[in-house]
Amino acid sequence: xxxxxxxxxxxxxxxxxxxxxxxxxxxxxxxxxxxxKRGRGGKMETITRTVMAxxxxxAAVANILRPGKPVVLECxxxxxxxxxxxxxxxxxxxxxx
Length: 97
Description:
Layout: E1 6-12, E2 17-20, E3 26-38, E4 44-54, H1 55-61, E5 71-78, E6 81-87, H2 90-96
Parallel strand pairs: 4-6
Antiparallel strand pairs: 1-3, 1-5, 2-3, 3-4, 5-6
């Protein structure tokens, strides 16, 4: 599978649903999360999307996800959904601000 392009975003979960896939991989689903990221031309844009994290990536961020609390994360697009790739690095977060 080719490496997907990642970006730094500020995610504010509305609600958090947790569960296991059919392969018993733990996941977190954030339906209707507010996502702030740099768009084309460097302007900040705010979108509402379902955000998900699976397996090890979920384990890395599950303890910092709280409804209504913004958190800076490294993400990628997968169709109309946003996948969490890990915690946002301080240097990348500074560039995104």
